[in-house]
Specification:
Length: 171
Amino acid sequence: MKLSANLEAAFNAQITLEFQASLVYRQLAIELELRDLPGMAAWLRHQADEEIVHANKFIDHVADRDNHPLIGGTTAPEVTVTSVLDAFEAALAHEEKVSASIRDLYRSAESEGDLDSRPLLNWFLAEQIEEESTVNEIIGRVRMINDDGPGLLRLDEELGSRPVATTEPPA
Ligand code: FEO
């Protein structure tokens, strides 16, 4: 069943927001790479890739519903990073924005009785809980470390060892 014109527009806005999230994470990765924290940078870069996977999930859904996926305009990420904490707080702020948008999308779909989008939106609701929780935990640990060099290097190493199998196909 096709999405209504209203839902099609809302899904397309979500596609654009996921690409925007990817740009934010990619810029944050650059900022931490420049601070000689390659592990954290790799973690953020992986998140950037994951956001593209998210955008693709929405694109596939819109196309599968016989609607027209359209990528809208993105803007420069414009993140200001003066500390490691800044970087992860910026990541959390964007995740919260994405979560709110997915909840709105869910409410719109429910108000139209669009059952076909439920499985996808349920997946995204769960994914957002997970993403916010992970970033929140990192923020908590960065606060504990409080600019202690050896502590930051340990966390950098740990985040850099995160498996990347979920978004990158095997070689
Ligand atoms: Fe696609 Fe991290 O939200």
